[in-house]
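Researcher: Can you fold this with 2-acetamido-2-deoxy-beta-D-glucopyranose in place?
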Amino acid sequence: MLLLSAATLLLILTLSSPIKVGKCPKDCSCDGAKLSAVCVGKNLTEIPTVDETQLLDLRGNHFHYIPALSFPGTVQVVSLHLESCRIREIEGGAFQGMNHLLYLYLSDNNLTLLDPKIFAGIQNLTYLHLEGNQLTQFPGSALSLVPNLFVLHLERNNISKLEPSGLLSSVTPTLRELYLSNNSISVITRGALSSASIGSLYLDSNQLIEVPTSALTGAPNLEELSLSQNPILRVERKAFQPLSQSLKRLYMDQMGMEKISQDALQDLGSVLRILTVRGNRLKELPDLRPLTSLEGVDLRDNPLLCSCALLPLRRWMETVRFEVSATCGNPPDLRGQQVRDADVFTSCLENASMNQKGS
Ligand SMILES: *[C@@H]1O[C@H](CO)[C@@H](O)[C@H](O)[C@H]1NC(C)=O
Ligand SMILES: *[C@@H]1O[C@H](CO)[C@@H](O)[C@H](O)[C@H]1NC(C)=O
Ligand SMILES: *[C@@H]1O[C@H](CO)[C@@H](O)[C@H](O)[C@H]1NC(C)=O
Ligand SMILES: *[C@@H]1O[C@H](CO)[C@@H](O)[C@H](O)[C@H]1NC(C)=O
Ligand SMILES: *[C@@H]1O[C@H](CO)[C@@H](O)[C@H](O)[C@H]1NC(C)=O
Ligand SMILES: *[C@@H]1O[C@H](CO)[C@@H](O)[C@H](O)[C@H]1NC(C)=O
């Protein structure tokens, strides 16, 4: 319901608000019905005065600094594009008056921190793009002015810590999707990611050295979690226990991971649908049989040791309805062979179990 496309929203607003005719600013092109004003890549250094438009696209200009009250007469704007405008600073109250703003794109600028009042007057903002800036902190106090935020993009910044406890629940209580890929996060305080509404969390390409289990307590609706490309070498038992009722998709690719503890995934037995552990250093795998809801698993590019210890995996692969791609890394004469084709298993005892390898 909240995921209406920009076009749908424009249509709704078009049908529900009378259209007045304003004039199109120099350097911009506007459509006849005054639904959009597009002023892309014009080397503008000041925000043009626009009225009665619903989409204002100012991408690729050179604004550098955006003072308070920079958008007079734009009460109808639903979507504002300010990507790649070399913006270093935005003064508090810059967007004041944009009462209908739902989408704000500030991607690929040079923001290092956000004024606590930057979002004053746009309390219904729903989608916020801040990826590709140089933020060093999660902009907690600024976000407290946009309590209806649903999707937040912060990829490619330089955020190193997520704190304090209760960060999400206090400043963005309705946030559903949080994108933090490609930052430098190494610390996440216990409870920082607690939130009743968070559903998708992208933490890939950061500096985490362990699964942030205690940070995820109190995120009972988290369905999707990416930890790919963090230097997490081991996944310990109970690592995902706080997510045992919700986690459907778990991505742990290219982490240099050497070991997944035998009972690390069992807590997700009834919910997990997608698991990817591609491109790690796993020689063995935990027993996947308890994961009864799995619909897809990616085990590729791991140096699996094809011996009788892997027999349960092999048997399991024969019983599941989806294709499982896994190749042997060892012993040397089996390297590169598909696990499903390796004949090493024919001589194994049927009841051999990976459990006997311990965890
Ligand atoms: C913007 O400025 C650059 C460099 O001065 C110039 O090459 C380019 O043609 C300008 N673009 C427009 C649309 O004026
Ligand atoms: C903001 O949202 C609230 C509730 O969702 C609504 O009542 C209000 O009219 C909205 N304000 C504007 C300016 O759209
Ligand atoms: C400003 O941001 C742009 C886009 O992200 C980037 O290419 C550029 O290097 C940045 N400039 C400085 C001085 O950091
Ligand atoms: C990231 O932030 C750290 C300080 O926290 C700083 O030393 C480093 O230069 C920053 N890196 C970039 C690419 O801005
Ligand atoms: C993160 O950075 C890597 C390497 O620079 C890049 O390949 C990847 O597309 C980036 N991901 C995101 C979400 O920005
Ligand atoms: C397999 O089962 C047989 C008989 O039940 C038992 O003797 C044998 O020790 C078991 N082997 C393993 C590896 O558990």
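Model: Folded with 2-acetamido-2-deoxy-beta-D-glucopyranose in place. The pocket of 2-acetamido-2-deoxy-beta-D-glucopyranose (ligand 4) is lined by residues 134, 136, 158, 160 (CB under 6 Å).
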